[in-house]
Fold this sequence. Notes:
- It is built from 5 helices and no strands.
- Helix 2 (28-34) packs across helix 3.
- By secondary structure, the chain is mostly helical.
- The two termini are 14 Å apart.
- It has helices at residues 6-23, 28-34, 40-47, 55-65, 69-72.
Amino acid sequence: MMKYDDKEFLSMKISRLRNGRKMAGIAQNSAWSKLGLTSLGDLRAYEFGMETPDEALYLKMSKLYGKSVSWLKGGDK
């Protein structure tokens, strides 16, 4: 199993959230409302690592983006 330091892991997690959305072909300006967030700023805070989604939000992202929660969190699948 590969190990990452905190900075590498955070970077990977951030890119997974953003890349998952982009791979699904969903723009930021529509994703935030589909996820039930209050504003576009909320989505950006998650995508840039200023906030961490809770499990319920990870599940919504997973369904919307067509990616597993594990993948969005930086896992293999």
